[in-house]
Amino acid sequence: MKTYSPKAKDIEREWWVIDAKDKTLGRIATQVASLIMGKHKPIYAPHIDTGDYVVVINAAKVKVTGKKAEQKIYYRHSGYPGGLKSQRFEELFGKNPVRVMELAVRGMLPHNRLGRAMFKKLKVYPGNEHPHQAQISFRHPERSEELRTTEKEESEILPKGR
Prior knowledge:
Elements: E1 15-19, H1 25-37, E2 53-57, H2 68-71, E3 73-77, E4 84-88, H3 89-95, H4 97-106, H5 113-119, E5 122-124, H6 151-157
Parallel strand pairs: 1-2, 2-5
Antiparallel strand pairs: 3-4
Helix pairs in contact: 1-4, 3-4
């Protein structure tokens, strides 16, 4: 028996909508990273991007547990001597809640060119609205409850009479 390796023609990408309202940041980020990498598919291979597109809505309403809101610090470096910058979670979340979700997911993806390609399939929005309604075709019954589209989205997606 030969080892199966997925080809580009075998990959079928779907669109997932995840509502992050009142959910924990890390738990949502792990679900999103798994979907983006394609680990939920039987054709998953770590060296090929087999994942799906993920739209995260209500990123501004995500929660963190414990004292992370006061104590978590995000670092970045300009590359120059003395170029280390730091920002607390509260400051970054107040300015740009989308960036917090993106950083959490990016840290869970591979740190190479494949991971950078996977990251482009993540779309995060602070509110309830997103411009990707046309890509989301239908609801999958096998999806877990938090990954399903909302009733409002389903009524917009599915044709009348179903």
